[in-house]
Amino acid sequence: MTIRPMAPDDWLTVSRIYAEGMATGYATFESELPSYANWDAAHVQACRLVAEKDTEILGWAALSPVSGRCVYGGVAEVSIYINKESRGKGIGKRLFHSLIAESETAGYWTLQSGIFPENHASIQLHEKVGFRFLGKRERVGKTKDGVWKDNLLFERRSKTVGID
To answer: CA nearest 111: which of 127, 131, 84?
Structure first.
């Protein structure tokens, strides 16, 4: 398996994997797949990766800025999705390690994730790669079915960027 930069041509497979995550009901508040143009505008250009084996994309990761304010320029939110056939095989961990390295090269000092409490696999993955639990945001958003959901906030602070 290789980790490589995501290309615009990967969108068809990336969006299918995203839709699989959406279908679980505990991976995102999004209810509809965005167009590539909207997804592209919302994500950092430098930190978009896919995990690939034999030309098949197994998962992807990308960062979104948390704020347009310059003081938060080194803080980004993580999106990481693995296709349903490949979950639980260590692909997320490898993809995450590459994303962390890429994010530090790009100058990010803090990565954060909001995770539904039911998403045990994502919580475990984040903890394995050095994220810590900060707290619970209660009823922070509604699902596509109109159900209020809590979100657990995790963060990872770089040991090499922003340490001054």
So the answer is: 131
pLDDT of residue 6: 97
3-state secondary structure at position 81: strand
Look at the pTM and tell me if it is higher than 0.90. yes
- In terms of Cβ atoms closer than 10 Å to its own Cβ (0-12, 13-18, 19+), residue 100 is buried
CA end-to-end span of the chain, whole Å?
36
Q: Which residues contact 82 (CB under 8 A, 6 or more apart)?
A: 17, 51, 58, 59, 91, 92, 95
Nearest CA among 94, 90, 121, 97 for reference residue 111:
97
What is the distance of C-alpha 55 from the center of its chain?
22
3: left (phi over 0), alpha (psi -120 to 50) or beta: beta
The Cα 62–Cα 147 span in angstroms is 27
Interval 4-58: pLDDT, tens: 999 999 999 999 999 999 988 888 888 889 999 999 999 999 999 999 999 999 9
